[in-house]
Design a protein that fits this description.
Blueprint: H1 2-42, E1 56-61, E2 66-71, E3 77-82, E4 85-90, E5 95-101, E6 105-110, E7 116-121, E8 125-130, E9 135-141, E10 149-152, E11 158-162, E12 166-171, E13 177-182, E14 188-191, E15 197-201, E16 207-211, E17 217-220, E18 226-229, E19 232-235, E20 242-247, E21 251-255, E22 265-268, E23 271-276, E24 279-284, E25 289-295, E26 305-307, E27 313-317, E28 321-327, E29 333-340, E30 344-349, E31 355-360, E32 369-374, E33 380-383, E34 386-388, E35 399-409, E36 413-419, E37 426-429, E38 436-440, E39 450-455, E40 461-467, E41 470-476, E42 482-487, E43 492-497, E44 503-508, E45 513-518, E46 523-529, H2 533-538, E47 546-551, E48 557-562, E49 567-571, E50 577-581, E51 594-596, E52 602-607, E53 610-615, E54 620-625, E55 632-637, E56 643-648, E57 653-657
Antiparallel strand pairs: 1-57, 2-3, 3-4, 4-5, 6-7, 7-8, 8-9, 10-11, 11-12, 12-13, 14-15, 15-16, 16-17, 18-19, 19-22, 20-21, 23-24, 24-25, 26-27, 27-28, 28-29, 30-31, 31-32, 32-33, 34-35, 35-36, 36-37, 37-38, 39-40, 40-41, 41-42, 43-44, 44-45, 45-46, 47-48, 48-49, 49-50, 51-52, 52-53, 53-54, ...
Amino acid sequence: MIHQIRKAEAKKIMNKRARNWLLILVLLASLMVLIGNYLSVKTREVITAENFGEVTELQRLGLGSILELDISPDDSMLAVASTTGIQVYELKTFTMLFQLSDSWSERVDWSPDSQRLASVHYDGTLKLWDVPKRKLEASKQVVNDRLKAVAWSPDGKMIVIASGELLTTLNAGTLDIIKNYDVPRIEEIVWTTDNHYIALNTGYWGLSFLNLENGEVNILNGENVQSIIGDDIFVNGNNTGALVVMYRKESRELISGDGFSKRLFRVDGQGFLYSSWPSLIKYTLAKGESETLLDYDKEIFSMEMDWTTDMSIIVSGGVSGNLTIVDTSSGEILGNIPDYYCCFEHLAWSPKNNQLGISTRTNWLTVHNIFIWDLFSNEVNAGKSKYYEWSLLDKEYLKIHYVSSMAWQFGEDLLLSNRMDFSDTLFVWNPFSGKVLFEGSPAKENYNLFGEVILSTDGKYLAYFSRSPSKLIVIEIRTGETILTQEIKNCGEKLFWSPDSKLIAISKCNYNGVEIWDVDGGAQISSWELENMGKIYLDMNWRYELDTLAWSSDSAYLASRNRGGDLRVWNASTGNEIYSIEAKNNIVHFSNAAAWSPAALLLAYNLPGGLALWDMETNTQVALIDNFDGGIQSIVWSADGTQFATIGDDHTIRIWGIP
């Protein structure tokens, strides 16, 4: 008996030891992963003028922004036209079947038999795709301008496409042009079921019908916002994406079901769907009545939608990083399709260079979405923005705290500050923990007093403009103490913190000049005006308007870009211009970027369709990346200078470095 007890105790001890060893092995494995991740960052090569030619794309986030959703006539597939191409999904399983194109696709339309897709592109190309064979069937350069719409005829024999003021019909089999029609301001096109008319959305001109037989265009406006041709009921949309349901005693404008793409609806049947934020509504033509099918989450749904033939399933999204498929009768979310983001705006590298804080901008009725992209696991986690709900009964205005800036404080916490357009309250908060580090309401009398609100590089300070009177105010976030209040002559436009968070550069709105202030000392370090400032206000030539400023890593230099793309480098202490590069074209841009490497005097800046690197020491352009589809909006370097992130016009984020 004693022997059996000892044997059992020994067995327990062995099992306990085995569990302990197993736990130790798991911990060691986890430690090895962490060490490997750490070493992978530390051993990545710093980007220099000498090795920049080896820089390549390391990672990419997102499939771009959705330009159109189109469910196939047999309700089996979903085609997405996005800024990165055309993706086709199986609607039942929500899995991607294939990607037909990898270039910017403006619009897509299914053939009546669901076997082919027609797509139009930014470069004026029309393409036909054989869906079962998953290959390009035909391609034709129709115009040298952006094509904005495409539609198959109901009998499948013709395709109609539209650019700005030209509508073209083509043979669907050969792509031979049948006829061109001059129609101004074409936004969307839809065929009538008899193949004789094409309905046109012409923006402010309203709903028009083109008679293909005689080429006449009949414009409907005013009270004639609905038109019935045979079995087709057309509902007009305007150029803001709003659906005018009916005109009776007053115009009732509602957000359309397909938002910025299908602003013109053809309805075959007894009703149609539309979105009146934040509800999905079904309008029954026979009764002339509307019923709310479901109230949806404004952080999930966008104004880009499409639905199945029986209106039982609706697809929407591209706001919070997902396409969402919803049962319209129950409101149940049937599934999600990931990786669609709209309008990346702010980026911030974590101090360890392993994460990227991201904010996206959507429409004015939607709060910003916040994400952290883990570059090791490639996972994206969503945070929350701050906003006030609105109340029509209380007649309160919608107050949204748009994200103004991002910074990593004390090495770990991602912090956000708000922009003041719709709020009288300053906020600094962590979007993942929900912790508010600073809250203040210094403008209760007038919420429009504020200009830009910017966090310092180290996340310790908050700087903002007061517009009446024009003042620069700096607050220490932890204590809430105001450490600088300085009146700014002729008002300020934008704020730019130095890398060491000791200096602030101000771009001035009236004189197109620059001021630099010492935060601790409260003294102005330097001030200067930019040349050609008179042309902005006298000649209304916005090419010379200051767009952005960028500090060098040692806070000794400032780079400036204007709307025309000119690059200048200034001595921050004296305001003396060191050198300049004038853009070769005279095109006005609204996203000219510049960013200094933190590890060297290298300046990265965007060009049309690419990115260039300027070496401060040799005063020469040393390298160029030119394989961007649509250009670059923003450039942000990692803290160690081994990588940089770019926001593209295609609404994707790319990480660049040396493999």
